[in-house]
Amino acid sequence: MSWHFTSDPEVFRAAAGARLAAEPARNTAVLTLMDGAERLGWWTAPDGTVTGVLAESPAGMPSLGAMPDEAARALVLPDGDEPLEVRGETAAVEAYLDATGRAATPLARMRLFRLGELTPPDPAPAGRSRPATEADLPLLGAWTTAFVRAIGEEPAADYTGFLTERVSEGRLHLWEAPGGQAVSMAAVSRTIEGQARVHLVYTPPAERGRGYAAGATTAISRAALDAGTAHVLLFTDLANPTSNALYRRLGYRPVTDHLGVRLTPRG
């Protein structure tokens, strides 16, 4: 049993492709990071079967996919550096922390959902969905900054490139109130290995409580399905019972819990 590492996505696909294909939802973060990762890793059982995977971001943060506890406990990165942050399935992150003995501060407790049968809100919210356009970029940038702050992270200086990519590919929708005012947004990732993730679901505080987020999420989920995506996923903050209940009503079902932590440097 051992960890193997590479910076080459094709080498990683050749070694761990069967594992990724067997549980794409549980390995969604690894699949998303795969082509831009600083390092990719896979854990092999005694018979050579790959039973765990990870991807390390260019910033040096490992994202742990589905893996047995023994793999998480045995994780040592090749350069010997201990990461300052780790994210992944809760069981794997907790097993890693237990093995290292390092103290850590939780950053986020998330739940991964997968769409079963899409169930639009009834009654439907007032207004309609439309794809965002380049003219919307200033508003989208302000909302993205507010969204990032709301989830407890430090926003980037500029989201223009990030948002333009989604707008140009039709992967970001706005919900408009009957008067034409944009009141909510939702985006979806590119489809990788047959799955895509809904993200950037945001409604300004003054517009909440009217069902606009449900409308935007339904519209972007349907757009992903219409584009041929087999599995539509999303993450929710476990500390937000409102969003967790909303996504269940729309037909999303829980898959597994995730944890992000900041580790305390050794003294």
Give your account of this protein's structure.
The protein is an alpha+beta fold and 267 residues long. It is built from eight helices and twelve strands. The protein has a twelve-stranded mixed beta sheet, with helices on both faces.
Could you name the key traits of this structure?
8 helices, alpha+beta, 267 residues
**Quick check: average pLDDT?**
95
Count of distinct strands: 12
Alpha plus pi helix count: 8
Low-confidence stretches: none
Helix content: 25-40%
What's the order of the H and E elements? EHHEEEHEHEEHHEEEHEHE
| Biggest beta-sheet profile | 12 strands, mixed
Looking across the biggest beta sheet, what order are the strands in?
1-2-3-4-5-12-6-11-10-9-8-7
Shape category? globular
Please indicate the percent range of residues in DSSP E strands (runs of 2 or more). Answer: 25-35%
Class inferred from helices and paired strands: alpha+beta
Distance between the termini: 31 Å
Based on CA atoms alone, the radius of gyration comes out at 19 Å
Please provide a brief summary of the model.
The protein is α+β, with helices and mostly antiparallel strands and 267 residues long.
Which helices and strands, and how do they pair?
Layout: E1 2-6, H1 9-22, H2 28-33, E2 39-44, E3 50-56, E4 62-64, H3 69-73, E5 85-89, H4 90-100, E6 104-115, E7 128-131, H5 137-150, H6 160-168, E8 172-176, E9 182-188, E10 195-202, H7 212-226, E11 231-237, H8 241-249, E12 252-263
Parallel strand pairs: 4-5, 10-11
Antiparallel strand pairs: 1-2, 2-3, 3-4, 5-12, 6-11, 6-12, 7-8, 8-9, 9-10
Helix pairs in contact: 5-6
